[in-house]
Every structure is written in C-alpha cells, then in structure tokens.
C-alpha cells in the first residue's frame, strides 16, 4: 500500500504544483512583489485571512494591499495612526478593523525592533523546531498592547492548534521547487523541518490514504501526518500539501 500511496502523491504533486495554481490561491498576493520584505509582509497578511472562499480571500487581501498603496514594507515602517483610518470599514469574516490595524501596528514593531518576520521565526526555530518558531511569533506579536480578541487570529500550536495558515505561510517563504509557487526567500529554516498546513481537505484525504489516524485536526495531527510524509521525502515533506489539498479541493483521488 505504501509504495502506491507515494506514487499517487508524487503524481498529484506534479499535477497540482504548477504555475496555474498561483492564480487561484492566496499565494498570488505575495507574487505581486519582488522585494523580500514586501513578499513576506504581503504573504503574512494574505495567509492570515486565508480561510473561507478563495475569491473572497483574494478580494480582501487585495483591499489590504490597496490601502497600503501596494508598498507594504514602507507602509509598515512609516505609517501613522491617521494612515490606519482607511481600514475602519475593513472586515474579513471575524477579522475586523481593530484586528487588521493591530496586525499592522505589531508588524511595525517587529520590523523596527525585532529584525523583521524572518528573524522572529529564526529565533524560535533556534529553540528546536517550527513549532517553536510559531510560538515565538505569538510571543513577539502580542508583546505590545493589543486587543484581546485579536489573539484568535494568530494560531498557537502550544495550545494544540494546527496553525494551518502559519504553516502555509512558512511553506511559501521557505520552499522552492520547479513550480516557483513558493518563494524560498528564507534560507535558515530547512524545508525538511516544515510542517504540513492541515485543513479539512488535506486531513480527509490523508485519512483515506492511511497517513493520518488522529481524528482531530490539531497540532498532534500535524505532527503525525508530517512524520509519515517524511518517509516519502525527508527533505521536502510538505510538497505533498499540493497533492492532498488538490485532491480535496478538486475532488480527485
């Protein structure tokens, strides 16, 4: 069974990990940019609202960028409170104006005082794992005064969250392959240590293929599935995210 599963995943990875994927996915948002800081900021904001219908995600992510004059790094560094008024009517599902405003304020703190997003994740990774990277982000992101409600918009694997959107963001920043979907602009965290972005589509197909037995879609499930995918490709286990997600979203197996 295992060789057949690997063969299927390899086939579907090559089928779905193509340039055409970009136009339909939130990863298209950071693809508007070439400067590293713009890529990571646009990617982080797009990933942070990446739940719900993809056309709505893309529309709202583009709205955020338009409010930043499509110059996210400079906007983050130099915005004032008056510049945030434009976000007063922003809403994406449960992410409200006060949430996105805090995201921008916190990113300013991160880029001015903590060396940027990459450095925050690296500092956590040096403690042992991608899980520690995400925990470090949580710590730094909410180290300044913040609305308590905004905490729910940054997942925390220390609380057993699957952290799907943050693992997806890390995939974008760290991986690089033939497809050029992912950017590979972060060089310190190796692809071998990335964790699978687990959502309902990925989990359902993983269970059907016998790669995941845990019933809850939580961090323990992320660890179980990623561990099993490393048997297929120890250097790049999360490449199979394309296969498992694509088989779910396009209803193929």
What does this entry show, briefly?
With 253 residues, the protein is mostly helical. The chain has helices at residues 2-16, 36-48, 54-67, 72-78, 97-113, 117-125, 130-141, 164-174, 200-208, 219-229, 240-249; strands at residues 91-92, 95-96.
Could you walk me through the main structural features you see in this protein, from its secondary elements to its overall organization?
The chain is an all-alpha fold and 253 residues long. The protein has one domain. 51% of the residues lie in helices and 2% in strands. It contains eleven helices and two strands. It has helices at 2-16, 36-48, 54-67, 72-78, 97-113, 117-125, 130-141, 164-174, 200-208, 219-229, 240-249, and strands at 91-92, 95-96. Strands 1-2 form a two-stranded antiparallel sheet. A hairpin with a 2-residue loop joins strand 1 (91-92) and strand 2. Helix 9 (200-208) packs across helix 11 (240-249).
Helix-strand pattern: HHHHEEHHHHHHH
Q: What class do helices, strands and sheet pairing give?
A: mainly alpha
The domain count comes to: 1
Report the uncertain regions: none
Count, helices: 11
Radius of gyration: 18 Å
Average pLDDT value?
A: 96
Can you summarize the main beta sheet?
2 strands, antiparallel
Indicate the proportion of strand residues.
Answer: under 5%
Q: What fraction, in percent, of the residue positions are helical?
A: 40-55%
Strand order of the largest sheet: 1-2
Q: Looking at the chains present, what oligomeric state does this protein adopt?
A: single chain
Strand segment tally: 2
- The separation of the N and C termini measures 15 Å
- Can you tell me the overall shape? globular
């Amino acid at each position: 069974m295992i060789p057949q599963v690997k063969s299927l995943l390899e086939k579907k990875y090559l089928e779905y990990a193509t340039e055409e994927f970009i136009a339909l996915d939130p990863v298209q948002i950071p693809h508007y940019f070439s400067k590293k800081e713009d890529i990571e900021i646009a990617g982080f904001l797009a990933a942070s609202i990446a739940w719900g219908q993809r056309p709505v995600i893309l529309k709202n992510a583009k709205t955020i960028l338009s409010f930043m004059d499509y110059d996210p790094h400079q906007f983050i560094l130099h915005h004032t409170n008056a510049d945030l008024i434009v976000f007063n009517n922003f809403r994406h599902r449960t992410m409200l104006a006060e949430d996105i405003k805090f995201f921008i304020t916190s990113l300013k703190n991160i880029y001015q005082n903590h060396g940027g997003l990459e450095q925050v994740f690296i500092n956590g990774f040096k403690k042992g794992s991608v899980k520690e990277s995400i925990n470090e982000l949580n710590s730094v992101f909410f180290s300044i005064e913040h609305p308590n409600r905004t905490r729910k918009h940054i997942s925390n694997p220390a609380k057993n969250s699957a952290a799907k959107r943050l693992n997806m963001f890390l995939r974008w920043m760290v991986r690089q392959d033939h497809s050029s979907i992912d950017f590979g602009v972060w060089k310190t965290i190796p692809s071998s240590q990335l964790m699978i972005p687990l959502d309902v589509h990925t989990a359902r197909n993983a269970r059907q293929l016998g790669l995941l037995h845990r019933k809850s879609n939580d961090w323990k499930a992320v660890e179980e599935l990623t561990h099993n995918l490393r048997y297929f490709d120890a250097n790049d286990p999360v490449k199979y995210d394309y296969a498992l997600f694509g088989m779910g979203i396009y209803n193929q197996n």
